[in-house]
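Loading example: each entry is read as two labelled lines plus one structure line.
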Amino acid sequence: MPFGLLKYGLNSEYPAQHHFSPATELKKHYDVVIIGAGGHGTGIAYHLAKYHGITNVAVLEKSYLGSGNTARNTAVIRSNYLTEEGVTFYRESVKLWQDLSNEFNYNVMMENRGQLTLAHSDAAIRSFRWRAEVNQHMGVRSELIDRQQIAEMVPNLNMSEDSRFPIMAGLWHADGATARHDAVAWGYAKGACERGVELHQLTEVEDIEVTGGRVTAVKTNRGRIECGCVVQAVAGASSVVAKMAGIPLPIHSYPLQAMVTQPYKPILTPHVSSPHLHVYTHQTSRGEFVIGGGSDPYPLYNTRATLDQRESLTAAALELFPFLAQARMLRQWAGTTDMTPDYSPIMGLSPVENYYLDAGWGTWGFKATPICGKTMAELVATKKVPEIIKPFELERFYKFEQINEAGATAASH
Amino acid sequence: MSHTSRLSPPFGSLIDRQQPIHFRFEKRNYEGFAGDNIASALAANQQWLLSRSFKYHRPRGVLTMAGQDANSMIQLPSDPNALADRVAISDGLEVMGQNYSGSLNRDSGALLGLFSRFLPVGFYYKAFFKPRGIWEKWAPLIRKKAGLGVINQDYQSEYYDKQYQFYDVAVIGAGPAGLSAALQAAKTGAEVLLVDENASLGGSLNYSRLDAEGIAARELRQQLVAEVEASANITAMTSATCNGWFADNWLPIICGKRLYKVRAKQTILCVGSLEQQAVFHNNDLPGVIMSSAAQRLMHLYGVRPGKTAVVVTGNNEGYATALDLLDAGVQVKAIVDLRQQPEYNEIAQYALSKGLEVKTGYAVYAANKDRSGLHLGSVEVREIISQGVCAASGETIACDTLCMSVGYTPTYQLICQGGGQLSYDDDSSMFTLTNCPDNCQIAGSVNSHWQLGDVIADAQRAAIIATNELGLSTQALPDAITLSQHQGPNFGWPIFAHPKGKEFVDFDEDLQIADIINATRDGYEHVQLVKRYSTCGMGPSQGRHSALATARLVAAATNKTVAQTGVTTARPPFSAEHLAHSAGRSFYPAQRSNMHYRHLEAGAQMLQAGAWYRPAYYGTTNQRESSINNEVKNVRNNVGLVDVSTLGGLEVRGPDAAEFLNRFYTFAFLKQPVGKARYALLTNEAGVVIDDGVACRFSEQHYYVTATTGGVGNVYQSMLKWNAQWRLDVDIANVTSAYSAVNIAGPNARKVLAKLCSDIDLGSEAFPYMGVREGTVAGIAARVIRVGFVGELGYEVHIPQHCGEALWDALIDAGAEFSIKPFGIEAQRILRLEKGHIIIGQDTDAMSNPTEVNMAWAIAKKKPFFVGGRSIQELNKAPLKRCQVGFVVNDLNAPIPLESHLVLDGDRMTGRVTSCNYSPTLNKPLGLAFVEPDQAEAGSHFKIKSSGGVMVDAMVVELPFYDPETQRQEL
């Protein structure tokens, strides 16, 4: 029993500590307004307050803290991307993840369980080898493994040669991990609020005032706020919010569905993904199997679940683990993924001088949370774009300098 | 064992006393009857303890008898977390409890409950991570504790399937409302589906008491069910769960091992209500059950819930339960009525006349264990001082059963999935529902009606709305039923905190009152945050028995109304369902060419390309290399035959066919002569190469365009998408599967073909390279295309799909004298590599523009537009970042680089190998690689990081490697 819990048992009165700033009136002016209180928005606020001494900050959230894709993602952390820019960025993020609980004094329950991506064709083997070679060269633990190694690593995986798409090889990423997704936003928000940042939930931005190429104020359902600058961190609504500031983004938004089973005794340690079957799964620390796959086939701003997706996801999951037939699906949900043409985010400066973008997070936003908090805060504080996020500027789409991660993204998350 | 608890008929309507069934629980033998489920059969044998809870391993047993709670989850051999009150017993069934260490009766895991005060809400966020690195030690320990049942990893797949059905009206729930709605709708001639998750139609009419004598419900049931059974246009399904509501009444209904996918024009949800527990100390002890559970036990299964009972109630239904208990010979020690001033109905009056002890304005403050520690032994009853607060002391009443009748929630899940809104009515302390979709009605208790007459009228009204909407009736719509003036069944605050806690709000997750309140005090005030922080409602029953109490507690703790507080989102499925149901039969179609079995006969090793199977090479796996090399040599020296049926085929016909291709592909097609083929390179809007093929012009208005095996689906889709914008006068069809095709290639190709083809002049001038002809080959109507992918004289012959085998046989026979041999994909890959031809997708990636891959020649310079054209123009303004080169490895001892090995310049990644093979023609490894432009000069060298990190020297050479003058394919 950790000592930290003793006070709860020994006190007759619950030693409550309000983790977040209780809802107060909005001030007239903030130096920084952050739109969106997910992991990214609260992470930026946290870093501004802790490392840059900027605390006149409001984080505005249209619903509740962490209610967007922070709540809906399937908590996959990895850095086995394909491009040099991508690997550098996500590698740094994974490093920050490792230390996150102690960084903000809140247990995010990061577990390094590893990620296994399966190849069912020689084309996939080629693409995995490419990733493995790039990753290894850049110090990311990633290797191509054969059938026997896969069978030893995940003994209950269906390795039958008679299955419709036999498993031929795998990409093993020892740095792959998972964490308690909600806790990331909570930990950051708590740390930010302790340092004076204001978190305003149920506060929806309805318009953004831009004069002379600068943001001057944001209008919310609770009133108008003047601001020194604005950061948007609204995965799932990036283009909608950017449009309020007059900024077109090259984003199409698609629902992405996932599901979870009831809890069972642990039988699967790593995260297992099959891009070919469009499915991935891992067993949470509660014992539930989380199952996800590809985005819906058409763009939509609606987080409904569909029967089609349930059918295809479960069928694919059973191809990998036939015994999951007896597991019971508990819940099926969806988030909205802002897909960019090159499967990389859009970060940094925008055409509006003091309006910063943290957008285009498709299916890769959760794993990037800590590095986004750090780098976007640095950008806001210093007005200088940190090297590591420079490649992800919006300008790249005008300069034909995309950072294409399509090959490392499909159904792998 | 004897059935001491079994009651005589009419109790036990579902069981057949003549059919005993023997099963085992925890390795002991038990007997039940046909019609029993596991829980009822065990209860009949006085076995109330079924399993252990998630966190504190508390003993748990029957709660609802309706398959709605996690307390009765048990382990079957290949079905963990099965619901004991849902699964029928069968002879030889092996049932075990779940989630215990040691034995079900003595579970060492329960010790954790002693430390619960040290495990506050969200405790895992607050500890276990200091000092740095310690979490890695804790995580596996905590993980081991997690989970409930055990999955059988040796599970043998069983047959599950699906069926589509279509109805005018689907009625979900076959209680008094559902039966009445179905009958009303059926009168208009509507095809009606009536679905109920229970084994018997009638819902609460099977077990509840609607009159003092206790006969009216059963009589009404009999009458309604008889009418339903006599209605030819009502299909009734029992033991069938409508497990979701998707847009436009798309209903997944699970029955047995089948998923029925039902499209209903109108849906009427008569899904009733779920009885809720009172929240007090030890309210989870086996023996503490819902009133409706006691009634179900008695009336459906003939099981006496206990010997001595107390009823805690906040309504008159508790009195009906007390009467039922009396009828069943149970001694009712007291009725504890939470209400200060009850308004008794006729049934309650009748119960009072029986001389029962009634304690008005009292609560059950705590439940106490019996001597076994595993069952209810007594309850402590105290007077209510104010909301949720009891007097300092009270009295203890010994009993083995406590029936709780303190209120309901509407079964809102399906309705909220359909967009329905949940609100809360402070007067009746009930959740109410509004905002259903237009094609979906709700009726009965889920619509807040509790008097039988109201319920039936409401259901009939809903059915009239539905059939009027369908045009099947034009009935005047009766006025909406006003909510009854009678007191509703909900008591506003059946929640009583205890200094020792263990008043469970959420049984699934072992959450107590303090956990919910403390979550709000920690700052997690929004009900969604309460859920996520405390895990309340996350368990197997998804908040069925915690949502109401949580909403009330959170509202009070945050000074909001219950309506403002609300509940968390209801997501499908309604009940947890086996993945087997939605997966159904594994359905991943395989595509085999018409020559598939010829390849197998010839000893081919097959590989998969998308859904297709293709011959990789012919020969045994241990002769892979030599087989492939011989196939290559035979094409170079004699003639080879390869099955290219999987190549995409697209028909583009119409007056604008040429214009269409001119916009779609990079090349120029307007002036393409009939009888000629042109290379067709496809880029996307970003100017990235995404597919290629040849466009064959068979007439002014008819092109036949090939595409890659893997790409044709996207190419076709893309063609349709663009033409939806361009609106050109063309028809586009994907005819891939309509054609079989072979490529016959090698110096002897013409000689072989000439033997089988008399109506096409094959002479090299009459039918030159890149010519296309229509004629017959071996008597089969054929499209013949002169192409040179492998770099030899070659013809692709495309014929109707079903003739593939015949053509194959004819060519093999005719070619015998010229040493024809089939070759596979592996040989083809080498042949084309020797010729320097790229494979899209292998030698290109998501960023490859045509210039990089030496395809600038395939871009028409003068045409006004093509997809990707503008991007390519812009890209070409900037200096090239990388380019593709051919290379050879001269050191024959070096490990042959593999595809995707990196090209390094010092420590810098400057490119990668995209293709590499040993060339049996040139006798050295050669390949294609992306390199930086300054590494691209012929004769220069670069380094490849090969297997095991060995740096291999590669020399750039001009492409193609083989036949640089390109004479052979033009023979």
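Chain A has twelve helices and 16 strands.
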